[in-house]
Design goal:
Aminopeptidase, disordered N terminus, alpha+beta, 2 domains, 16 helices
Amino acid sequence: MRRAVIGSSRRRRSPLLAAVLSFIWPGLGELYLGWRVRAAVFVLPTLAAAVWLVIQAKDGLAGLAFSMLNAGTAGTLLGLVVLTGVLRVVSIADTYLLTRSPASSRPSTTAAIALLIIASLAAHGLASWYGYSFVAADQQMFGGDVPAGTPGPAGMSAGASPSASPSGSLNPFTGQLPPPDSATSRITILLLGADSGLGYDHALTDSQIVVSIDPVKKTVVMASVPRDLAQFPMYSGGTFSGKINSLMTVAAADPRRYPDGGIGTLAHEIGFLLGVKISYFAFVNLQGFENLINAVGGVDVVNPADISDPGYIFPDHSIGFFLKAGPQHLDARIGLAFVRTRKGVGDNDYTRARRQQLILQAIRQKLLSPATLPRIPAILDALAQTIRTDFPASRIKAMVQVSQDIPDTAITKIVLGPPFATNPPMSETGGVWLLRPVMAKIEAWSVMVFGADSAYYVAKPLSPSPSQ
């Protein structure tokens, strides 16, 4: 008799309310109907997933987003999204079956429950798309390989020493860079930009920017190395007679002479010249860079001077680039021209390098803004097209947290052209325009900005005490 009363009570429950409760939280509908054990099958796994998500999001939505760049974390999230989606849909359907009766079979009730199932599939499908975007971006960005299709050298030569690097024989593209000594050590990344997209037919590293972050002092140094720097001492001995923007492709083509590979050789060399240990690289191609600016919704910069380059050729073959000084919102097309033009009135490689630093700073501001969260899939896709890096994905979240604490006023920007390098007479260079480094000035600058982290730093001896 008691079992019949319970069954009668369950049947009198609203099937639509039960389905709505299971839509809100899988298993609540079964609990409402009095099926406690059955409810636990749905409630407990969903609760465990929610607890995991809360732990991951303890640093806010932005922190959660960047932690997802770790493939393991992103994969776990994707799995939990699929699992909870299945539990939600099954729980809604289960409550419908448990309350099946003439009342629950009404077309309006059936249609409402069907809509709840469709809404569940749509919500979890969208969340799965976000999760998959992180997994795909992680696989593409953090492999440490130069983007596929990067052209090799053509007719380039150099006069570097054939001495082998202490690093030994390594992959001809990546090389092995020394990691930071500890979690609080200075982190230095070499950003390399090359025209390996948009139809340009060479892969010279025309943009070489060293970004060095002190996580303790909360400061950043951005130093652009001119592409025409030449006749500089090599870290492995001897002198490289060519320009530094050709070193990567020269080294990649001759792994026997340059066992640290293309990017490895370039990173070691720039770190050697600047006196700071470079631990990671990020290779940026222009096609993806344009997509990245578009994905973040454009960037805002203060253009330091009028740009007037009537000969600039856009990728769509239109000619002429002009931009007034002052605050500017740059879309993808103009943003790309902003970092590429160098032949306009009053422009040169040094002014271009300063603009590249400005736009990197502007992109940083956009990526750290919570307003970009709805754009995450598009941003991740653009980043995957833009960047190849050996930076460990597991450290991205910590890096973002440090970056959020660094104001723009704590970022030092410099272009290492004159007076850190001089232009020798073309009669000495065979008619080639180049820059020759003034190592004494570079060393002094290195000690000034990097302090004890500089390889050129020499600790002053302690003064003897009066009693000695």
